Amino acid sequence: MSHELISKKDLLDLTGISYGQLYRWKRKNLIPEDWFIRKSTFTGQETFFPKQKIMERIDKIQTMKENLSLDELADMFSPTASSLNLTASELISRGIASETVMNFFLEHTGVSGEFPFDQILNLYMLSSMLESGDIQLDEGRMLLELLKEHSKQLQKKDAIIIFIRKLGISSCLILMNGEDVFFEKGTKMVARLSITKCMEELKTKLL
Amino acid sequence: MSGQNHVKIHGSGSASGGTYDKITIRGEGTILDDVECQVFKTFGTSELQGDIRYEKLDVFGETNVKGAMHGTGLKVIGQLTSGSDAVIHHTKVRGSLDLAGGIKGEKADIKGSISSGGNIEMETFQLHGNFVAAGLLSAEVLDVGLRFGVSRAAEIGGSKISIKKKSALPFLPFGKGDGTLEVKIIEGDDITIENTRADIVRGKNVTIGSGCEIGLVEYSESFKHNSNSTIKEKIFNGSYEKPQMK
Questions:
Q1: Which domain of life is it from (chain B) (predicted)?
Q2: DSSP codes joined into one string, B188-228
Q3: Which residues on adjacent β-strands are paired with residue A194?
Q4: Average pLDDT over residues B95-102
Q5: A18: which chain B residues are within 8 Å (Cβ-Cβ)?
Q6: CATH of the structural domain A5-77, one choice from 1.20.120, 1.10.1660, 1.20.1250, 1.10.20
Q7: Residue A84: which pLDDT band, with cuts at 50, 70 and 90?
Q8: Å from B238 to nearest chain A CA?
Q9: Predicted TM-score (pTM) of this structure
Q10: Radius of gyration of chain A from its Cα atoms, rounded to whole angstroms
């Protein structure tokens, strides 16, 4: 995650969007309030953005606004749970999780019938970590425990899940409004997952 | 919603919060807690001690809402104050609307004044009178007539921004002369301003009318300038231009 900033003016030059569009997207909550970073420069107040995040976001908006309304887009970017309820078999057929992962998930969470969005998200995160081979089943259980325990925090923006391992012993943690974490020598970070990113990926899959 | 669930207060009285179809207050009334209703009409003085969610809210007189407001249509003839944020699709004010928090909506049509302790964000914002926003005033189309007093905002941003002076009506007891605007930054695609003091104005097409004092204008397409306004610095597409002195 780079923390490079880009000024509003450079952003408009680079992307070719207008002030009107930028403010419209801000009003429609397509661009989060806390990405607008105000700093004093020699010309007075200037607004800056986290470069990588805003460039990705604008790229997404521009490619998707052809077939989605701004409100639908806002819903997609919003970190709040949307009103989707799907059953286990529907989720498998949409490729959110494999049957194996699904069975494992059902076994350890006791979810049945329709999945609320937060459970779908948990499933998706579990699935992506298991399928990538970063973690094993035992650690998957650990992940589910963590997600269950701190479900409140996960509704918030910018939560990041980190898996670490040292000498074969593993642990996981949730990082809020993540700046940086530092580990002692010999600790390996095996997986790092941004919840906001997962949510967006998931929503594009579900749409 | 149950079929016939109305509250009527005639004279003086109070009612508990809850869910109602229609609430009418004539005289003086207090709603003691959060309330949700289809239609809320108040004539006289009223106070809501919680949040309110509504379809339609009509205020004739004076109303104070302690909590947040969430609704479709708001009409104020008189004065409405709120101690929190508001989300209102259509706002019509003839008098004043004062919010401690921010307000978001589709359209606002205001004759009188609006003040917000946060941001004012609308698709269409029309105002004749005076406004104060502690944060950002943002609208797709912003059409302001400055009638009286000093309007203020930290920032103004949008697509079409027009801020003009309108003389106060001669028989109204407002201060003499026109209204003025003080703002740090104005950014938009098409900007026309009068009677404005701003540090920075940035846009595609910028017209600085009479009575302005601007620190820096940055424009990318066209620029017009009334000679009785002062502009310290001007930048066209990144290149510095010497301001012309009359």
A1: Bacteria
A2: EEEEEESSEEEEEEEEEEEEE-TT-EEEEEEEEEEEEE-TT
A3: A160
A4: 96
A5: 159, 189, 204
A6: 1.10.1660
A7: low
A8: 10
A9: 0.74
A10: 19
